[in-house]
Amino acid sequence: MTRGRLVKRIAEEVLGEEKARHVWSRLDIIGDLAVIKMPLHGEVSVDELRRIAERLLEEVPSVRSVWLAAGSVEGEYRVRSLLIHLAGEERTVTLYKEHGCRFKVDIARVFVTPRLNYEHLRVASLVAPGEAVLNMFAGAGLFSIIIACKSRPSVVHSIDVNRYAYELIIENAKLNNVDHVVKAYLGDAARVVEERLAASSDRVLMPLPALALDYIPYALLALRSRRGVLHVYLHVRVERGSDPLAGAIEAVRERVEREGWSLARADARRVRSVGPRLVQVVVDAEVRRS
Ligand SMILES: C[S@@+](CC[C@H](N)C(=O)[O-])C[C@H]1O[C@@H](n2cnc3c(N)ncnc32)[C@H](O)[C@@H]1O
Question: Buried b vs exposed e over 199-231: b needs ≥16 C-beta within 10 Å?
């Protein structure tokens, strides 16, 4: 049974079929925390969700704490808003495991989602031995550390503007014995690149759709030769008759060409759905200075 279906089934048993129709079936399990994702809309009360959460604790022994994320992921730090404790230990810090790596995370203070797990490994598998990698929006360091553990980069520069994320990158790099490879920087990625990382890298990750296109000039500034690879994450609206992947490539091409570079090759893929008719897309762009 999928995780979403599990919440639905419990809701049906605890609240009855009629009420259960208003319970969203979105559930993330992050370490030993479970996060039910749905807005509070009046049809189902917090107390009713607490009864579902209590049952979830009984049925999934690895879960110790259940939270409701009633708002979306928002703000500069991209954290879950309107987190409400439902059942179990009142704790937002956990140890999350992905691809054999371990990460300390705090769901209230730093972005983390298990829904990028395929993407983390996919990008790591593209990194060649000896490459210098820059992650401009590193969060708790998931991409950076998985790359450091699975491939053999010379360095993974990892920037985040959130002090707590920056501290977690350092802690998580030590936890996975890759602190000699993963270097953390605190600050706005544009400023950090200008001041410390110009001409430093072969490959640049830009996993923040809100800023990715605008920060392409800084990603290009960070490349250490006339060629390099960018991974640009974008949110694209899915319109009838339009191709979101082709649109994303064109948006990247336009921004790269404005800086006097060109696209030698570009592929795009859907990463995940992020809302009604809204998808996250990644463009893997091999760029060349014209
Ligand atoms: C979507 S999250 C990154 C996800 C992460 N790569 C992962 O896979 O878990 C985006 C991150 O960018 C950071 N951020 C936001 N604005 C920034 C900026 N101007 N410079 C650097 N980091 C920034 C946020 O604090 C957040 O941790």
Answer: ebbbbbbbbbbebbbebbbbbbbbbeeeebbbb
Q: List, by residue range, all CATH 3.40.50.150 domains of the chain.
A: 112-289
**Which of 7-16, 107-116, 139-148 is predicted most confidently?**
139-148
Q: What atom of ligand 1 comes closest to residue 137's alpha carbon?
A: 12
Ligand 1, atom 4: closest residue by C-alpha: 139
- The CATH H-level (homologous superfamily) assignment of domain 3-91 is Met-10+ protein-like domains (3.30.300.110)
Distance 212 CA to ligand 1 centre (A): 10
Q: Which CATH architecture has domain 112-289?
A: 3-Layer(aba) Sandwich (3.40)
Q: Is the pTM of this model over 0.85?
A: yes
Q: How far is the CA of 126 from the centre of ligand 1 (A)?
A: 21
CA dist., res. 257 & res. 217, Å (int): 10
**Which is higher by pLDDT, 240 or 169?**
169
pLDDT at 4: 66
Instruction: Report how far ligand 1's centroid is from the alpha carbon of 110 (Å).
Output: 9
Residue-wise pLDDT for 185-213, tens only, equals: 999 999 999 999 999 999 999 999 999 99
Rounded to an integer, what distance in angstroms lies between the CA atom of residue 197 and that of residue 201? 8
pLDDT of 74 higher than 80: no
